[in-house]
Specification:
single chain, eight-stranded mixed beta sheet, alpha/beta
């Protein structure tokens, strides 16, 4: 049977590397859901893709709000009966010394960079399974710091860099945990550091001089999302185009379990949600 066109959701795809990934996938014939907070900026990306013959649609949500993430998942499920690729790309960088909180009262970088992707992925698992073989990609970073389970929200010794690095390691730890949970479902999940200090708004806001291009980062993300060489391979961490090794905590089964339990609790999901979601039939 001939495979239908791929349907892709990329969070944070109205700017930077997410935007370029969306443009390239649109040019390849995929149906792309563009996500962002700003409708005007998002609509420009949709129009750019359409002007080159691609198919793109805009979905908006503030990933600092669990309610909006749930709304985003509902909208995706209502608008498509398949999802072949989910790229969790949206994030907040290291800039800013003041600790901020999300709409739900969680440390902002942990909420947006990590918890949003956890909840969105969990809610879309039935749709991904129905579309298998499907892929989940977490855009993480080489900047990693072990999760402090005694103070995950960093109420002590806060810094934007520390918060960012902890949230990125949480993404990779989730990758390793989900890879085991999803074994045999036809869904693979991998994470990566796309490129070092790309020429993006996030990097410039941090006051850092870019040393890589968004093109390099997009190449790395698309490798995990679409490369035939990675079909069926899961639980991997890449640095650019090369398979690599993350911080040791990401591979610690106890840390994975502790992070999963915490994430389910923070997201307001039952303890068996992931296994139950995988048994659901997408309508």
């Amino acid at each position: 049977m001939e495979r239908k066109e791929s349907t892709v959701l990329i969070t944070g795809s109205t700017d930077g590397v997410g935007r370029l990934v969306a443009q390239r996938l649109g040019a390849s014939g995929a149906r792309v859901f563009i996500h962002g907070r700003n409708k005007e900026r998002g609509q420009r990306v949709v129009s750019e893709i359409a002007s080159h013959g691609g198919k793109a649609e805009l979905v908006t949500a503030d990933l600092a709000s669990l309610a909006e993430i749930r709304g985003l998942a509902d909208e995706i499920r209502a608008r498509t009966d398949r999802l072949d690729i989910l790229i969790n790309n949206a994030g907040i960088g290291t800039a800013g010394a003041e600790r901020q909180t999300s709409a739900d009262g969680f440390e902002l970088r942990f909420a947006v960079n990590y918890l949003a992707g956890f909840l969105l992925t969990a809610l879309l698992l039935p749709l991904l399974k129905a579309s298998a073989p499907a892929r989940i990609v977490f855009v993480a970073s080489a900047g990693q710091q072990a999760i402090d389970f005694d103070d995950v929200m960093l109420t002590r010794g806060y810094s934007g860099t520390r918060a960012y690095c902890q949230s990125k390691l949480a993404q990779i730890t989730l990758t390793m945990d989900l890879a085991q949970e999803l074994e045999g479902t036809g869904i693979t999940v991998n994470s990566l550091h796309p490129a070092t200090y790309m020429n993006t708004t996030m990097v410039r806001r941090a006051g850092v001089t870019p040393v890589s291009t968004v093109e390099q980062g997009a190449d790395a993300i698309l490798n995990l999302a679409t490369s035939p060489k990675l079909a069926g391979r899961s639980g991997l961490y890449f640095s650019g185009l090369s398979e690599s090794r993350a911080d040791a905590q990401a591979y610690d089964r106890r840390a994975q379990q502790e992070l999963r339990e915490l994430s389910l609790e923070l997201a307001g999901l039952p303890s068996d949600f992931l296994s139950t979601a995988l048994k659901e039939q997408h309508q």
